[in-house]
Design goal:
Bound molecules: zinc ion
Largest sheet: 4 strands, mixed
Order of helices and strands: HHHEHEEEEEHHHHHHH
Helix content: 40-55%
Low-confidence stretches: 262-272
CATH topology of one domain: Collagenase (Catalytic Domain)
CATH superfamily of one domain: Collagenase (Catalytic Domain)
CATH architecture of one domain: 3-Layer(aba) Sandwich
Oligomer: single chain
Structural class: alpha/beta
Shape: globular
Distance between the termini: 46 Å
Length: 272
Amino acid sequence: MNIFTRARIRHTLHRHAIPHSLWTGIVENLACLQGMGAVEKAHLRKLSTLFLAEKHFVGAQGIELTPTLRVTIAVQACLPILGLGLACLAGWTDVIVYPAAFRVSRDSVDEAGVVHHEEQILAGESWSRSPLIVSWSEVEQDGLANHAGRNVVIHEIAHKLDVLNGRTNGFPPLHTGMSIPQWSTALNAAYQQLLARVEHHHRTCINPYAASSPAEFFAVVSEYFFCSPDVLHTHFPDVYQQLQLYYRQNPLLRQPLKHKNTLADTQKSEQW
Ligand SMILES: [Zn+2]
């Protein structure tokens, strides 16, 4: 990082600091940040400030972009990159916020040349070099403890990280020292187990939407990694370990009581 970049960052952190009362009010209420230590919180606040300075928020369907809305989305967008850095989110600028789930329609052409029209209701969406799009009502629900394992902002940010090596396929660029075979084996085995459960209409331990594709599996297990790490660690310990190496964080340690229980449960629980 050159001296001008450092000076610009210092200037941004100083001039556009998130007000203390706004920050503490949001951080204390977000379930995914419970148990986070002061050092990590301070780093997260810096990243969130820089995120807000770099990204352009756009309100859809008349939604008011309040400071609470902007900071709540920024802090959850920066949680996955706490150990990766803001450069991972370069290449796109706009954050589009809808008041509630939004409708998208797409045309696709199959191998026979037939055009199919599809309509979907989405809580969030992101593509390479395109805006991050989220529903505010979903973001608000995700902040609550009773929406465990769900976080639309983290889900969409995981897609943004996944696509950094060119394709959204559940295989983000791994760090030096990480093993590609270990990553592939851990995530593929868990994905296949989940897929088999879904195909046989059996109950699943995580959101069955993860079985949609390897890309969705990576995005959903990332939600659990940050928001319900005990669930992911219990059912897919190898996936948890790979995500710990990739994200360079260990969210389980932020849940000391659950962590102890989880370690005990891991030995006696079944896979599902
Ligand atoms: Zn997705």
